[in-house]
Design a protein that fits this description.
Shape: globular
Strand content: 15-25%
Strand order of the largest sheet: 2-1-3-4-5
Distance between the termini: 28 Å
Number of strands: 12
Radius of gyration: 19 Å
Helix content: 40-55%
Number of helices: 9
Oligomer: single chain
């Protein structure tokens, strides 16, 4: 069953055609989404750095400066942001590349506003709502913040540099915080075009844990928990805190 959406989800629309951007913005706002717009890939990356990652991005393919595929490549260096390509390019090879390497969905212009809303909702249902607030620096608790665009964890006030794989892994686990994420799902999202084994994931998880976990806490893990034989989970500390407050009030 799909979890109810608890906040207004934010969509980033990126297209060098101002009319298309306005149409996408109007369509999605009417459907209840918050929309941020950009007229180039560079502007979109600047938006992400200043206001934080969106829940989903709708991106044109051919734009001045960096292309839609290049934008996707760059943003996937530090996240697993779901992307829908919205473009006039209908060449089979381009569509296949887009779907295999960069995007969750691919739409060809001109587009139906109703279909766009349906596809956005379908992708968001499948990927899931991000459990933590998506801000320039995402706060986990009183000791940990994550700066996804700059691939940095701020732990007890000190910056820890994260590798692209560590940052994307953290994003994947945090998106489904409070849920067990199967190992094979993590492997597919991190390395979609490569045959990989679980040992490779273990190495990156070990290094990530060394950077963010509380070394004084010898319990199952303050943030990342191994679910034997199933996968891994990132604890939803906000939900756990609310549950504790409710129990105390009873």
């Amino acid at each position: 069953m799909t979890e109810p959406i608890t906040r207004q989800q934010r969509i980033l629309a990126v297209d060098d055609n101002a009319y298309t951007v306005r149409l996408v913005e109007f369509t999605l706002r009417e459907a209840g989404f918050r929309v941020i717009t950009a007229l180039s890939g560079e502007e979109a990356l600047d938006h992400i750095e200043s206001v934080g990652l969106p829940d989903l991005a709708i991106v044109d393919l051919h734009m001045p400066g960096i292309s839609g595929f290049e934008f996707a490549h760059r943003v996937h260096q530090y996240s697993d942001l779901p992307i829908i390509m919205l473009t006039a390019v209908n060449h089979e090879g381009t569509v296949v590349e887009g779907l295999e390497e960069h995007a969750e969905d691919y739409m060809v212009k001109p587009f139906s506003p109703g279909e766009l809303v349906a596809r956005v909702r379908r992708v968001l249902r499948r990927i899931g709502e991000f459990a933590y607030d998506l801000e320039p620096k995402t706060r986990i608790d009183d000791r940990l913040l994550i700066d996804f665009p700059n691939r940095t964890a701020i732990v007890d006030g000190k910056s820890e540099a994260l590798t692209p794989t560590e940052t994307k892994l953290l994003y994947i686990l945090m998106r489904k915080a409070g849920q067990t994420v199967p190992t094979d799902y993590i492997l597919r999202r991190l390395w979609p075009m490569e045959p990989v084994f679980e040992d490779r994931l273990h190495v990156h998880l070990h290094r990530l844990r060394r950077k963010i976990e509380d070394k004084k806490d010898k319990s199952r893990g303050r943030y990342i928990v191994s679910e034997r034989g199933a996968g891994y989970s990132f604890r939803d500390l906000k939900k756990e805190s609310n549950a504790d407050d409710t129990d105390e009030g009873e």
